[in-house]
Amino acid sequence: MPGENLSRDEARERAALLSVDGYEVFLDVRSAVGDSGSGGGARTFRSVTTIRFRCAEPGAASFADLVAPSVTAVSLNGRDLDPGAVFDGTRVLLEDLAAENELVVDAQCAYSRTGEGLHRFVDPEDGEVYLYTQYEPADSRRVFANFEQPDLKAPFRFEVRAPEGWVAWSNGLGELVDGVWRFAETKPISTYITAILAGPYHYVTDSYSRTFADGTTLDIPLGAMCRKGLAPYFDSDDVFLVTKQGLDFFHDHFDYPYPFGKYDQAFVPEYNLGAMENPGLVTFREEFIFRGKVTQAAYERRTNVILHEMAHMWFGDLVTMEWWDDLWLKESFADFMGASSLVEATRFTNGWVTFANNRKSWAYRADQLPSTHPITADIRDLEDAKLNFDGITYAKGASVLKQLVAYVGRDAFLEGARRYFKRHAYGNTRLGDLLSALEETSGRDLASWSRAWLQTAGVNSLTPQVLLSADGLITELAVLQEAAESHPELRPHRVAVGLYRRSPEGALERYARAEVDVDGPRTVVGELAGSDAPELVLVNDDDLTYCKIRFDEGSLDTLRAQLGDLTDPLARALCWSALWNLTRDGLMPARDFVDLVLRFAGRESDIGVLQMLHAWAGSALTHYAAPDWRATGERLLAEGALKELRLAEPGSQHQLTWARFLAVVASNEADLQLLQGLLEGTAKIDGLDVDQELRWALLEPLTSHGVADEKTLAAELARDDTASGKRHQVRCLAARPSAAVKAQAWAQVVESDSLSNALVEATISGFVQGSQRELLAPYAERYFAVIERIWADRSIQIGMDVVRGLFPSLQDSPGTLAATDEWLADRADAAPALRRLVLEARDDLARALRAQACDVTAVR
Question: Do the Cβ atoms of 547 and 460 come closer than 8 Å?
């Protein structure tokens, strides 16, 4: 049997053969508080699974999935099977199946340190142990035997025997009976969204009630939990507020009551994802509980994630894609509906600005990589599936749905969704199932739209072309559409074109707007003919479609001089995003983008956009600026950050944002002395509260530039002896400018598997410092020598973290590009998912070299 990497063909064969009636799963996790094994904890727990299932071809053979160190006993239809003969470490062979079957598997499964399966975390603050599960796309088989594919849905009954004093949770309501937590049977759901949580969690409760038009009432118990050490910071009232707002929104728009009983939300440590939509027990990374002062952008992001996961209760949990090819059927919809509900139901009414500036930049990057793929992707196996949780599946898909709403109309879109839920509740679907519902409600043939938007890859560029009369009026305005040679599809776009000019007060404001269907290489916008000449033409005003915005020369000159005068926050965000795409594409020198940030970022009102500008400016300096200009750029950014920090309103979120950016770009002695003074209390900036999280942010540059040493970091950890503090300390330790430190960090990540997923991530983050290119140079060759072994020996999550995180992108030279090409040429037979990661990194490096060449040749 071929092992862990289940293929689509195998899944289809098994789905045609088997149907599952139900699971009963018993887990004994009392060993979680043991002291055996490496890392100070137990290695395994007992898992007993009973599966009742039918076989369409009696006498046939199939297999169940299980990734476990050992199996104690296997019984099929009352026959005891030899575990050594039927279990190979990843699958349980099932031969001579009957029409109706009962499989019982008693196994010893392993606790996880990588965030996959049943993760075990020991809190360094108080020694308490916490357990939680994370399965997507296929890690429930690390916890119990099952048929691990999304289309073999079934009801589940879970029982958990936990250490005394613990509480356990699962998808359904639970109660403690004779020392065992027993949970109500679920509705039919897929294996990857089942969940278990156990430990001494801090738990807060609330409730939601809704009375519908027919007089029926729905009551939903609400719960929220976190580690005890985070309880003082847990603002559960805000979590419950947005939860209720979201439930109201989805009930108003989906006309299908929340189907899974209770609604618990757990914030858990060392989480690999942002969150996971387990019905009745949603899990989030605990960084969404804020230990220090954060900006409203952080609260907006948390709210968006809460609503994204809630949308999954319908798109993904109630109706689930048949196979991972149609992952977009849940993720794209959750991303779009999460943003819609954020804007319409919560206090974050500017959420589409964040979407345009932040989420879509993720999509644009992914869609220009050599690994780009259609939204409906070709997913051959589980490794493919793991890598396709990307910007295309999420943010491009959501952008395309926004375009679809503009195309068919909001009412038709929502009515199509309602029919889809009712028609396929607790079932599995493909692309055509949703399109047929939308065609019914909109009256439109969506086949050509689907081919253009869902079944082809790549991003189009839209550029305005303006012709003026002698007296300064528009004689013709057209939109030119282009596509990359590799993905030449020209798509239909419903766009708004906005015309902007200065008001008497100097503001840059829109004075004309027209919507048009762009189709083909050139589309005339007839409605705008005769308008006064614009100073700025903004294609895709209001962000109706998914495209790269380009500018005519006059518009670009206007932005260079007046970007800060653009009054509309969404228009401003779209312009910033377009300018960043020009920089990434090597069409605008990196130093010009940095100059725009220095001149206009201080006037940015939207805090999320400001934070994105800081991230882009840092990337421009690190990757896209000519090497001989980096020192100058770093000095200019540090001077600009300090200037804006001192100008910012005391105590404001802008002040905090500029303080954090200064910590990122500070490098000269004066700036580092200021950071050290803020840390020690000898320097002060009025209104700036240097709380514990900001202290760590200030410490990292002090450490990476050799000002703070290991002793200083040990003292800071003693001050903040928590799980969060440990992650910060590990990152700072790896950031020290020493060859011995780099060798130690490399060995901890590459030569050992003793670190948890969170500490692997922290070590890699500290290891890779833009100011330490020479120290990191010896590891470029070593990287290519070890990545195949890493991919073979580690879990896929750790493999992804290492292959992406340690790629020698800071060795940005043709030699590194050649070494990457040599590895790819010599490893044609390497795992496709591994090759994809290296190809993506190679593309980023080639892009950086092109952008540096543009920066070198720029006219100053």
Answer: yes
